[in-house]
Amino acid sequence: MAVRNMQLQTALLPQRDLLTADQRFSTAPSCRFFTSKTSLRRSLSAAPRLCRAVLSTPSLKDESKHQNKEYEDDGRVFNFAAGPATLPASVLKQAQEELYNWRGSGMSIMEMSHRGKEFTSIIQNAEASLRSLLKIPDDYAVLFLQGGATTQFASVPLNLCKPEDTADYIVSGSWSDKAFKEGQKYCTAKVVWSGKSNKYTDLPQPGELSLTPGARFLHICANETIHGVEFKDYPSPGGDTLLVADMSSNFCSKPVDVSKFALIYAGAQKNIGPSGVTIVIVRKDLLGNSQKITPVMLDYKIHADNNSLYNTPPCFGIYVCGLVFSDLLEKGGLRAAEQRNIEKAKLLYDAIDASNGFFKCPVKKEVRSLMNVPFTMETPDLEAAFLKEAAAGGMVQLKGHRSVGGIRASIYNAMPKAGVEKLVALMKSFQERHAS
Amino acid sequence: MAVRNMQLQTALLPQRDLLTADQRFSTAPSCRFFTSKTSLRRSLSAAPRLCRAVLSTPSLKDESKHQNKEYEDDGRVFNFAAGPATLPASVLKQAQEELYNWRGSGMSIMEMSHRGKEFTSIIQNAEASLRSLLKIPDDYAVLFLQGGATTQFASVPLNLCKPEDTADYIVSGSWSDKAFKEGQKYCTAKVVWSGKSNKYTDLPQPGELSLTPGARFLHICANETIHGVEFKDYPSPGGDTLLVADMSSNFCSKPVDVSKFALIYAGAQKNIGPSGVTIVIVRKDLLGNSQKITPVMLDYKIHADNNSLYNTPPCFGIYVCGLVFSDLLEKGGLRAAEQRNIEKAKLLYDAIDASNGFFKCPVKKEVRSLMNVPFTMETPDLEAAFLKEAAAGGMVQLKGHRSVGGIRASIYNAMPKAGVEKLVALMKSFQERHAS
């Protein structure tokens, strides 16, 4: 924590991510002995004044190479899984260090009463960090729940709708389709746009949508993990219709204007923590109107009234989420995260687009996801050979979802740029060897 | 794991827990240099043949003192929390060691795809260990779910009942009362016995129960965490009425004849792991009849058909549960666990009963819980002074539940005997100083 606090004080690391390449390399060289960002950080904490210029020196010019080496020295693979997904190495190390005895409490976080002062501080800090990251207005409740986004497919209509209400769904992939199907149980759920006929490679244009007048809410999936389509702008349903978004797979990957939404929900296991935690951000004035058949654990008001402690929450998972939130804040918040994600995604999409069709991404360019990059090759055999080579090179979980096949590289917040560069290098080398 | 496997091979440690004191101390002394059970175990793994007699030597005569010292040297407190609760130190250390890079996979378990071979082996091993511990018949499904027992309060009637069915509830404390109230939403829930008028200090005698003919199920809470009453024998509802039990707070604390039950459920955070995992053991022939309004995530058949992988499960929590199950097996299974629990509980109840009313346990002797021991003192001031002294001595979370006050010592599987002995020693000393 001392290191982390010091980093916050120097406030240098976050800013660096916003610098252009030119700015980064414009300062006089010094401290060339630092071999990686991590060791640099450790040293910064010891001598912050001395090293203020370090982060912009040529010694870090090839930062990715260092990241790469650091990963490999540490026995880490580059994990492109769609979720549960890679987490920041520094967060994992802190969680490891604190697992047996959390900050001198004599207990693991897994053993602590959820009503004790230790865990109270953990969940409150996690909420405060998330509020800070997303600039969540005070009239929104933040809930730490269980059950994944799939549970929210039921909770949303149960809490927001009367059974006779209509709710509109944009079906842009497998997840929004599941949300729609579950919604049918609890209201008149209507599909107002579907990407199915185009194999979920596109999203609706603003003018294309014909919403139901008086619909209670419009539901979207902000990023379809399986198909790799992501909303860049969000539809405005207008009138009293509420906008609801499943942001599971792009949550905290970029800034979001929360005030445009009535409700945002997200499973943690993509960008912010381990599986078993689900975040719900909901306008407080919407609470207290759940249907009578709502299980108590799916009633948002119960959880809001009890600060997510109505029953025992998934304490260890919430703790890890809190560490990730702190880490994101230290790295410059969501604007900086977005810039890193744009940079990484560009590397990968550029490689695909420059391959003369050797690699193909089926998704329309305007709606390509920054998080999940699906692509295909000419034959399943080629894809299998590619996956094998990737795994041999320490790049794992690149197989596309079993429902669509192909390759999928999930490059969430915590995927280092070096991982994407290594993947791109393999793609180029593979193409050279296999292109006919 | 090498150590653990070696322990299994020698099969000595489990048996020791079943030895009488005489048997334990009857062997010729040797290996006096071992200062704790843990270091002994480590050494055993290196030289199992040499040390076969060690576990019965006088060097371990005062094992509790060693446990105590070991705890204190390690910075651990004795944590009497009702849940989340203390876990085996060895399990925590293993989880810590493996957190950053699970067994050479290059990933944390928190980062692994739940459909990858690594996690598949983890969840399958956890289920196999639990089946072995509880001797679960093959015609029962074992589900690893989310949401705590409170979610099951809804899931049970939603899966087992039609809306017009009657379900009987024995209300023996706060938890079964909550289960009953939630049940009212989904069937005709009836209280067939209530301990409320006696402040939940008793349980029904077999003859006392007047069940509803044709009731779909009879629901019991096997152990009431707040009030400290525990079923020693289970009622047999007879006819086609199913027996359903919430075993959250005594799950895996003793053997249970699973075949007597249609369904058993338990939150993990008492005896078997961190919060965020809920185990359901359900007869397979009962699946597939859920009410239409059942959220997909509350439908047992969905989870059974998908081996608990319909959506992303709480992977890290399931992993820790698996470690606890292995640990229990290595220590002789549930019969041995029960013996240890009886021994610990006897120490505490004997101290209360021998205090001439200075400490009082309100619960009827025949139904006193082996897991949660509530007791009171003459005044709240005395209780506060006692709690303060206990905390100063490294014994924490002894305050009774906010709804009932007093003291409560939760002494689950992982509470070392030394912790109970230390508590009893404080009770005696405190009484000597404060008895009028």
From TrEMBL, chains A, B:
Pathway participation: Amino-acid biosynthesis; L-serine biosynthesis; L-serine from 3-phospho-D-glycerate: step 2/3
- The EC number(s) given in the record are 2.6.1.52
Record-level GO cellular component terms:
chloroplast stroma
User: Which keywords does UniProt give here?
Assistant: Amino-acid biosynthesis, Aminotransferase, Pyridoxal phosphate, Serine biosynthesis, Transferase
InterPro entries on file? Aminotrans_V_dom (IPR000192), Pser_aminoTfrase (IPR022278), PyrdxlP-dep_Trfase (IPR015424), PyrdxlP-dep_Trfase_major (IPR015421), PyrdxlP-dep_Trfase_small (IPR015422)
Q: Which GO terms describe its biological process?
A: L-serine biosynthetic process
Q: Which residues form the Aminotransferase class V domain?
A: 77-423
Reactions this protein catalyses: O-phospho-L-serine + 2-oxoglutarate = 3-phosphooxypyruvate + L-glutamate; 4-(phosphooxy)-L-threonine + 2-oxoglutarate = (R)-3-hydroxy-2-oxo-4-phosphooxybutanoate + L-glutamate
Record bears the keyword Lyase = no
TM spans (from-to): none
* Cofactors demanded by this protein: pyridoxal 5'-phosphate
* Superkingdom assignment: Eukaryota
Enzyme class, broadest EC rank: transferase
Has keyword Transcription? no
**Entry's Gene Ontology molecular function annotations:** O-phospho-L-serine:2-oxoglutarate aminotransferase activity; pyridoxal phosphate binding
Q: Which family does it belong to?
A: Belongs to the class-V pyridoxal-phosphate-dependent aminotransferase family. SerC subfamily.
HAMAP family for the chain: SerC_aminotrans_5
NCBIfam families reported for this sequence: PRK05355.1 (NF003764), serC_1 (TIGR01364)
Q: What name is this protein filed under?
A: phosphoserine transaminase
